[in-house]
């Protein structure tokens, strides 16, 4: 595991696209490396500690938000179940949850570790997302459905058949405390009583205007084939039902990042889609975040795009990204946006 290395690009970089004024002020200000072959898959801000948690394919880093100083690194030696970390969640008790690739979920607080496997009630060893409801119920997305950990009792429940697809990559809780799931087969909503699902047939994901080949990485094959880089570094592919990320926005809309179908928006009545034709950097959308001003950030296979509802600004490798595929995004207090790729993370700010 290499230490995060600060490059300090603020004086060297400029931004592209957009009009004068606020758009021109956003730029990549710092860059931090984690290793040339290491992927950053998860970014989570812990505001109370002034920390950014960075989940990679080689362990977890805790980084000081204010100055970028590396506070700690966790691997199996320290108690992590598996170094390949795809998700990081923080519950209301301050526990850090690390979802791993084939290693279950590891929970950490104040030097104490606990790892959960299927024998403890976890649905699967492959963990890809976390979210918590207002009542404390904690949701875990896996490759075999979702778990709900009861906020009072800690009891695990598993839901599979209720979902449109059992391979769950994203979870979001909206302002009405409803839970949204992004899966390899579409989007499912649980409102506390009913389960409702949508697929491409319902408008999720834009049409295949470029006539790209359909991705066969659908959740019906072997687990060894399920790597989120498949199709991203080679020729473009298309599977709009495949949802990498989901976000409940502050205006009540819900956003889903699809494989080849761009960013899909649910307004409560219908799905609409944003693609490269509208200004999005790439049509494979791995991550979505919303900044302090309400603007949406999309991590794609061709860089990061910021959209404020009217204007777009995109950041590519030439603008300071370490690599073009942006797998994780996080917004820090004060408005800085962190973006994770292979090789490391960058901080985008004004």
Write the layout of secondary structure elements.
Blueprint: E1 5-6, H1 22-25, E2 27-33, E3 40-46, E4 51-56, E5 59-64, E6 70-74, E7 85-90, E8 96-100, E9 105-109, E10 112-116, E11 127-132, E12 138-142, E13 145-149, E14 156-159, E15 168-173, E16 179-183, E17 186-190, E18 195-198, E19 239-248, E20 254-259, E21 263-266, E22 271-274, E23 285-290, E24 296-300, E25 303-307, E26 312-315, E27 328-331, E28 337-341, E29 344-349
Keywords, separated by commas or semicolons:
350 residues, five-stranded antiparallel beta sheet, 44% strand
Q: Poorly predicted ranges (pLDDT <50, ≥5 residues)?
A: 1-23
Q: What oligomeric state do the depicted chains represent?
A: single chain
Strand proportion, as a percent range, falls in: 35-45%
Radius of gyration, in angstroms, nearest whole number: 19 Å
Largest sheet: 5 strands, antiparallel
Number of strands: 29
Major beta sheet, strand line-up: 1-2-29-28-27
Element pattern in H and E: EHEEEEEEEEEEEEEEEEEEEEEEEEEEEE
**How many DSSP H or I helices?**
1
Structural category: mainly beta
Percent helix, as a range, is under 10%
Question: What distance lies between the first and last C-alpha atoms, to the nearest angstrom?
Answer: 31 Å
* Average pLDDT, all residues: 90
